Amino acid sequence: MIVDKTKNVREQKLTKSRLLQRKLYCAAKADPKRRFGILFDKVHSMMILETAWKMIRANRGASGVDRQSFEDIETYGVEKFLQELQLELQSGKYHPRPVRRVMIPKANGKLRPLGIPTIKDRVAQMAVKLVVEPLFEADFQEFSYGFRPQRSAHHAIKEVRKYINFGCEHVIEVDLKSFFDNIPQDKLMDLVARRVSDPRVLKIIKSWLTAGVATEAGITRSVIGTPQGGVISPLLANIFLNVLDTEWRKREYDHRKRDAHLVRYADDMVIACKWRPEFYFARLQEILTSLGVEINTEKTRIVHASEGFDFLGIHFKLAPSYAGKMNCYYWPSHKAVTNFKKQIGQMVNNRATVRFEKIIEAVNPTIRGWGQYFAITNAGKTMWDLDRFIWSRFNRIIKRSRKLRGVQRGIVSAKVLYEQYGLVDLYGMTKEKSNAAQ
Predict the structure, then answer these.
(1) Which of 28, 85, 213, 402 has an alpha carbon 20 to 30 Å from 298's alpha carbon atom?
(2) How far apart are alpha carbons 428 and 68 in whole angstroms?
C-alpha cells in the first residue's frame, strides 16, 4: 500500500490548527471577560497560513484588483507565495489592496454590490479568522446560525418550523436596510477589542475595513460598512449582531414564559412569538437603534403563520393536516423557484452549439445544489414540477437547435435523460431524503 506522505502532512497540519482553535475556544469559554493579547504569532504561523490557503483554494472565486488567479499562484509556487505573505505579516509590511467591486443582479431587478479581495488578502483574512473566531464562538448564542462552524441554514429552517409547531404562530419578518454597508466601524472595532487586545490583530482587521473599494471611478473609502465578499466579513457581522442576540437572551424574551424566539442567519432573521408580537417588535427596534442599525420598514412585517411567510428561501405556512391537526408545512418559496427557473433557462438555451452531454454536465451541479438545499422540505410537488420544466427545456433545445450535437432529433423522455445522460432528478432527491429519514 502506497502512503501519500504529502496528504498525511496536510491532514496533520489541519488537525493541529483545529487543536489550536479548540484550545482558544475553551480558554475563552472558561473566562467570558478574558482578552487575548498574544495572537498575531499564530496568525502568521505557516501551519495557519497553509490551512487558510487550502480553505480559500477550495472555495475558488474570482481574482481581485491585481487580477492574480489561483492558477497564477500555483504556477509561481504556493509555498513561495505563502512564505512571502508570512514575511510581510511578520515585518509589518503587509497592506491590503482595495476590493474589486462587482454588481450582482438581485431577484427584484436591482443590483447588489459585492467586494472581491485579492487572493493574498483572502488568505490573510482566513488566517485571522481561524485564530480569532473561536474566541467569539464562545460568546455567540445558539440561535445564531449564519456562517458558523457546525451550523447551517438547514438548522435555522428547522428551528423556525419547530417553534411554529410549538404554538409560536405570530411571526416578525425582519429586514435590515443595507446592513453590511452601514455597520459603524468604530462600534465594530470596540466589540472586537472586547476579546482581542493584540494591537497587530486589531490593526490588520481595521486595515481591511478601510482598504476601500475599487470602481471605474476610482478608489472610495468609508468609515462605515464592511465589504460583502470578504472572508472576514460574516464573522464581523456576527460579532456586531451578537449584541442583539445577547440582549435578547439577557432579557429572557426567549424564555418559555414569554416565548418570543429569535432565529438569526447573519442579517436575515425572524422572531416567532406566542403572543404580543408588536411588543417584541418594538423591543427589537430599540436594540437595533442603539447599535445604529436601521430596519427596512417596507419589507419588515408581522404576520400570522397561517398567512405564510418566507425565510432563507423557504415558504412556511401553518395549515391543517388530513387528520385536522395544525402543522407547519414548508417548501421552496416562489422567489426561489422563479430564480431557479431563470438560471436553468439561461444555461439550457436554444443557441446551444456544444455536445448535449456537455450541457448536462454543466447544469447538473446547479440542479444538485438546489435540490440538496430544498429536499429537506415538503417539496415533492415543487420538485416534480421543476423536473418537468427542466425536461421541457431540454426538449426545446433538441427541437430548435440545429447545431446541437450528441443527441437525436425528436422528443427525449425523462427516463432517458436521467438514466442515459445522467441528468439529476430533483424529485428523486426528495424520495432519497424521505427514505433516509425513515
Answers:
(1) 213
(2) 41
